[in-house]
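Quick entry, no commentary yet.
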Amino acid sequence: MTWAWVRERLDPARIYWMATVDARGRPNAMPVVTRRARNLSSNPAVAIHIELGDHVVAIEGVAEGIAPEPELAVAIAAAFAAKYGTYRPEPTEWDGDGLYIVLPRVVFAWRDMPTATRWRFADPAAGGQ
């Protein structure tokens, strides 16, 4: 597996499943952004995977809230509109919070289990160490 194979699946994917844990330790996995900010504020650990049948890309890491600069917010809003059509967020929607980046700790990819490829990144929870 190559990193290009991972990007070829992540970039066009329409559904991204995200697993978080609430303040009481209860897991929650959904393909929508409900309850995400509240869960991530108490525990930034996150797992994300795409929905593509037996082609799998799974990411584990830490979510970090960001307030993008105006130019980046415009680009992100345009990307959402191009990808999803009916969902057209305003660039000012993320002025305070609500937008997150995921700092990956590990990424797994496979198309023929049990053979998988793993990429490891610096642990974001340890300050990149």
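second:
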Amino acid sequence: MNVRTYVRPTTGWWRRNPWYRAYMLREASSLFVTLYALVLLAGIACLVQGRAAYDGWRAALASPWSIAFHVVALGFFLCHAWSWFAVMPKTMPFVTVGGRRLADRAIVAAGAAAAVGASLLVFVVVWATQP
């Protein structure tokens, strides 16, 4: 008796469902986060090697390819960050205000606003301390 086992097709199955497409986009965004971390790690390694190596690394960051990579990475960073904010109300205990449960959208908006506010504060402090 010849029994054939089912073999699930592995090409493109995730493209048919919008939820899976969003999931794959979030997963792809983590690759760009890793690549950017490696770029920063290379900068630290160049900083250890001396001023000439560090200046060379900074000059490489000014190339058109590097700027294009940073623009694409920024888009993926925003997507990655937004997915973390979107999952926040699903992972935390219910927050009640005045006896009513706080809406998920309010929690996501508060988290995003806190992140933007903290980033602006760091930017202003660093900019104000520049000579």
